[in-house]
Amino acid sequence: MRYVLLLLFVISHEIYPLTFFNTKENHRKEVVKLAESLIETQYRFGGKKPSGFDCSGFTRYVYSKACKINLAASSNLQSRQGKKVSLKKCKVGDLIFFANKKKISHVGVINRKNKKGIWMIHSSSSKGVISEEITHSNYWNSRIVVIKSHF
Distances from the Cα of 92 to the Cαs of 5, 44, 51, 119, 126, in angstroms? Predict the structure, then answer.
């Protein structure tokens, strides 16, 4: 009987590799997939829906729909949720927060990370939802305050 169960485990693992066993990575992928599908959505102050987002409305919507995680309404309050991670150890799906004069004022979702840099998807007041490289940007890099993981 033990061998039959082991065989069934191996077969199911071959057919459905890591989908059942690694839900944290699946949630990360779902967050990024949904965030990317919303690129080019217009910016709307206080916006919380696909008809228009502000930065925290965007992250709140994406996390809620992609993996049922309820985030606070503002970027400042969202920055107090989750587990702090370093820039070096951040992963796609993590939230990255920025400050303007010591107060957290912006948030985005990390959607790509490699040797060349880190990209985020965020709702920009001037361009709407976009993906942007941030590690080589003087503007964004100098304003990074904290990165938070919910996975």
Answer: 35, 25, 25, 9, 24
Q: What is the band of 24 on the pLDDT scale with cuts at 50, 70, 90?
A: confident
Distance CA 77, CA 3 (A): 51
Q: What is the pTM of this model?
A: 0.84
The residue extents of the domains of the chain are: 27-149
Instruction: Kindly report, residue by residue over 77-117, the tens digit of the pLDDT.
Output: 999 999 999 999 999 999 999 998 889 999 999 999 999 99
Q: 27-149 has which fold?
A: endopeptidase fold (from Nostoc punctiforme) (3.90.1720)
CB–CB of 33/111 below 8 Å? no
